[in-house]
Structure formats: structure tokens, C-alpha cells
UniProtKB/TrEMBL annotation:
Alphabetized Pfam families for the sequence: GerE
Protein known as: Helix-turn-helix transcriptional regulator
Species lineage: Bacteria, Pseudomonadati, Pseudomonadota, Alphaproteobacteria, Caulobacterales
One BP annotation, GO: regulation of DNA-templated transcription
Record InterPro entries: Sig_transdc_resp-reg_C-effctor, Tscrpt_reg_LuxR_C, WH-like_DNA-bd_sf
PANTHER family from the UniProt entry: DNA-BINDING TRANSCRIPTIONAL ACTIVATOR DEVR_DOSR
């Protein structure tokens, strides 16, 4: 998983929308959605919530870090 994909998932885990994430990291909401979709595919899940759950469980992201 790319750093940008993991970063977007981290912000999703903190309750941010794609528009919010885009403003935070300087991307369009559509680009954020694309990164999240790629992360979902790599994790073998269909939704962003499932991706966050797998990401936390596998240690890819830590919503409480930083």
C-alpha cells in the first residue's frame, strides 16, 4: 500500500470525509476517493469502513497515532 493510500485511510479512521481529507492533504476529493478505492482493492474489501478495520487490525494505520 502506498503512503498516500495509508494516509487517506488514516484520515477516514478519524471521521474525515473525502472533501475534508482533500483539504488537509492538498488533493481533490475525487483523488482522495481514488486512493481509498485502491486501498480497498489491495486489502480485499469493498467499503472504506472495512478498509479502516483491516488497516487497524493489520497495523497499517493507527488512528490514535499523531
Amino acid at each position: 500500500m502506498s503512503g498516500r493510500e495509508a494516509e487517506c485511510l488514516l484520515w477516514v479512521s478519524r471521521g474525515k470525509s473525502s472533501a475534508d481529507i482533500g483539504q488537509i492533504v492538498g488533493l481533490s476529493p475525487r483523488t482522495v476517493d481514488s486512493y481509498i478505492e485502491k486501498a480497498c482493492a489491495k486489502l480485499g474489501v469493498r467499503t472504506r469502513i472495512e478498509a479502516v478495520a483491516v488497516g487497524v487490525r493489520t497495523g497499517i494505520i493507527d488512528p490514535e497515532d499523531g
